[in-house]
Amino acid sequence: MRIADIQSHIDHELVSKPQIEELIRRVAAQVSQDYAGKDLLLVAVLKGAVNTMTALSQALTIPVQLEFMSLSSYGAGTQSSGTITVRKDLDCSVRGRHILIVEDIIDSGRTLRWLVDELNSRGAASVEVFALLDKVSRHEVQVDVKYPGYVIPDEFVVGFGLDYDERYRNLDSIAVLKPQEYQDQGEQS
Ligand SMILES: O=P(O)(O)OC[C@H]1O[C@H](OP(=O)(O)OP(=O)(O)O)[C@H](O)[C@@H]1O
Ligand code: HPA
Is the ipTM of this complex over 0.90? Predict the structure, then answer.
């Protein structure tokens, strides 16, 4: 789905499809170089990071293992609850593994802070982070990001995996909805 398909819902686009593709290409080249000859495990946080995981993993030139974890800190709205809940754990041990966490967005930073600490405490050999988007002005905790993405303003965004109330994940770019869309939860147009 493109912006043009849902133009009446969209206030403005923040990151275009070509911009996403360019970033993913650049990061994939760097990751492929940095982890050449190493056994890399990519860990993505469901559901938001699925598109980023797919795009990044396909752009790599090295073989990697893909694993998924489901954590939640956001309910139906736009505010983080501040508490991390594990909905689905990893299917494998991370002991002694080199891990790259693939995330769609850093907002408060609480999800990543928790995950980095958790993977380190499980005995990972290394834990690094790639996040497609970063709302730097909203960080509440510190997170080191080896592969930074686009810094975006303090606006609730949708697209490329990111949802509002489970909608708009299949938009192929990153956008801000019209204010009325954030109120009409669940209504179809
Ligand atoms: O930096 P934070 O404030 O912790 O926010 C970032 C997290 O919030 C979103 O996930 P969400 O809990 O909405 O679940 P989802 O990916 O299934 O939409 C997003 O995908 C990140 O994982
Ligand atoms: O801006 C956002 N959009 C969607 N999900 C999110 N989770 C944290 N921030 C956001």
Answer: yes
Residue to substitute in 162, 176, 182 for testing ligand 2 pocket (most ligand atoms within 8 angstroms of CB)? 162
Ligand closest to the CA atom of residue 47: 1
| SS3 (DSSP) at 130 | strand
Identify the residue whose C-alpha is closest to ligand 1 atom 12: 72
Q: For residue 2, give the H/E element and its range.
A: none
The percent helix, strand, coil of the chain (3-state, each to 5) is 30, 35, 35
pLDDT tens across 142-153, in order? 999 999 999 999
Pocket of ligand 1 (CB under 6 A): 45-48, 72-74, 80, 103-111, 163
H helix runs in 35-86, sequence order: 50-59
Domains of the chain (ranges plus CATH)? Answer: 16-154 (3.40.50.2020)
Cβ count within 10 A of residue 149: 22
Note whether 124 and 7 are within 8 A (CB). Answer: no
**Per-residue pLDDT tens over the stretch 86-138:** 999 999 999 999 999 999 999 999 999 999 999 999 999 999 999 999 999 99
- The pTM of the full predicted model, rounded to 2 decimals, is 0.93
